[in-house]
Amino acid sequence: MGSAANEQDITAQMEGFKKAGLGGVHIIPIYGVKGYEKEFLPFLSKDWLAMMQHTVREGKRLGLGVDMTTGTGWPFGGPTVTPETAARTMNVKDGKIAVKPTGQKVKRAAPGGEGLVLDPFHPTAMREYLTWFDSTLIQSPERPRSMYNDSYEAYGANWTVDFPKEFARRRGYDLLTKLDILTDTTTKLPAQLVRMDYHQTIAELLLERYAQPWTQWSTKNGFQTRYQAHGSPGNLLDLYDAATIPETEAFGTSRFPIPGLRIDPDYSIQQFGTPNPLAMKFASSAAHFSGKPLVSSETATWLANHFKVSLSQVKPQIDELFTAGINHVFYHGTTYSPPSENYPGWLFYASTHFGPTSHFAAQFPLLNRYVENCQTLLQNSQVDNDVLVYFPIHDLWATNSPSGGGVHLLEVHHVDRWLLKLPFGKLCEKLWEKGFTFDYVSDLQLSRLRVAKGGSINSGHSTYQTILIPASTYLPETTLKELQRLAALGARIVFEDHTPSHVTGFDGADRRQEQFTKSLSRLLKGKTVSVTSDWEKTLISNGAAQEEMAEKGLTFIRKVYDGKAMYFVANVGDDFKEDWLKLGKDSYFTRYDPLTGEETELPARRRGNSTEHFLSLLPGQSCFLKGTTTKPNLETANVLANNFPVNGNWAVTFLKGMPSLPKPTSVSTLKSWTTFSDSAGYFSGTARYTLSFEVPENIATQKNIVLDLGDVREAASVKLNGKPIGVAWSIPFQLKVPAETLRAGTNSLEIEVSNLSANYMRLRDQQAPDWKKFYDTNIVDITYKKFDASHWEAMPSGLLGPVRLRY
């Protein structure tokens, strides 16, 4: 905030990150904190660059990566952007083009970074913008690992200085003579063709003049690039493909039906939409297609209101990202805050607070260990997807856009507005639900495909069995030629339900349509080309595996690790608990639990000509299945079918927290500690629950016993008979009981539970709301209204149970 940092505090914060198990940091300068103006470091000034270099040096010392935004706030812009290179918007008024500046300035800019947003379609704006860094950043001997380009958000930008000239050169006619057609909002064919031409020109200029110059400059100067293409009017696949590390975003809360998973009731789906794995797959598809080892995500943005996010809410969102192909998580986020600052420190308005003053700071290393265990496998394996789904973006471009400037913005928020309403989105939903593995492919990417003997299709980095064309209306001639080329080489191509009926492009459409129809007819005569509504059967006959686990309610990604099949499997639903499954690849598997690091044999049995595997995976759990040639000794399922209630008189002692410690108490029925006393309703911190209970010998001698804590608000560290058995921080709140820890007769249970900071902030905002002292938006709630926790109801806290032994 305000770049008001010093070397000592940067070092302290980075050492804390290292201790927490983080892999690196991202520098993004934003607006400042009131009262600290004298400490502001103007962006790219000598002092700012010195602080950046100190951060990079400390990162190297600690083994932490350091990335940096190529600018402040978002999107790109600032003091070097002139009115001539600033974003423009066009509309048609009285039959004539009216062009004016959007007037948009950099959002959340830091001191020294204020200014206009650059024109993303301008012939020289990006290159001129980057010269700002040539004379500053590039002179520094210590530099970040990667440059970062945040989500598009150039609102209303839809024109540039030479747009008419470029349009005529690329599309073959003068757009200014077709304004009546461009503004025709009907579904008439000429209007749709001109709209497509307009959007295609916008998309090409964005790729050629914005994404590519930025990535080329970064590469030339030794940086990788992390690029959030979403929100832009271009083809996301081509834009993500331009970067070293494509990056998507998980904004808000998915509506997972996991029992016990809380959804913030204040979060507005109408306002923000929900995360969707099909949108995330645009970034991972580009990475898989082009062999990029890393694909990242801005993660847990606005997961819930401030001070109300639990780690049990974070984990399933990360699991969804992993199943969508993401393997490089960036938490959103942590604000640099001086250690001397009073609680809660400096906070950013849109973040989940992952900093050292977070209420889950003590358990944060456990989440990071889980993510590291997952990413170690996901980053060091190869994707194994069978189907390549063509993205028919021209069908979207043919429709009217509700977005500002009349252009289609492919955002991660309301995917229902552009992705799910297309036959493409509906088809991909079915592929996902039916267990087919797939990536997307763009018109441009098709030209890079080659066909191997036997008909498999290779991008140079990934191999697929079939190209699947969703039911669509429009197809470019260049795309049809690529499909003809691939079919001639033996590629298997499947059209869903029907073939496209119209060629794209307004210029000479009637003449070209005749040739298009003839060419399409010739394509359909190919032996490996089919048109069918039963695409499921055709994909299977073409060699695609249909994974049974998807139809049973599990989500997954299939990869190849060490030459063997590997699955990451997540249960983010409430349909599956345990069952025998057929897996599409390899004969036998081990199960690896990234939460504990434990690897065990997966029970297997033969049924006819198939091998079935027994998987127990409760809602909220996840695991890896790793292929092996070793037949397991286990051929029977181990089912925890019995429950033994752990009841008695619980002694509750409050150990640490704010604003003060409530008095010790005892309860025979577990309930929220907010009901214990008036002061407990404002307490945020840790309490210890202790209990003595009796266990019969026939239960104590069981080989496999799990301690199920029921509902925990929010994390529980457990000792059984004085021995630590683990920390339960994610759903289900269960811990395996180590052998010989439980004993027949009397046992002692000690559970330390930490809650959210929301309850304390109820009091803090009543008595001392002085922490809200930031410029710009200051601090707002999840609906972007002024933040005020004083009216909140107390959040349930502590051990709610029921506690039981499962065996």
TrEMBL record:
Gene3D superfamilies xref list: Galactose-binding domain-like
Arranged from A to Z, the UniProt key words for this protein are: Hydrolase
Q: Name one GO molecular function term.
A: hydrolase activity, hydrolyzing O-glycosyl compounds
Q: Does the keyword Ribonucleoprotein apply?
A: no
- Give the SUPFAM superfamilies listed for this entry: Galactose-binding domain-like
Q: Where is the Beta-mannosidase-like galactose-binding domain?
A: 688-773
What InterPro entries does its record include?
A: Beta-mannosidase-like_N2 (IPR054593), Galactose-bd-like_sf (IPR008979), Ulvan_degrading_GH (IPR053161)
Pfam families, sorted: Glyco_hydro_106, Glyco_hydro_2_N2
- Give the domain of life: Bacteria
Protein name per its UniProtKB record? Glycosyl hydrolase family 2
Question: Species name for this entry?
Answer: Persicitalea jodogahamensis
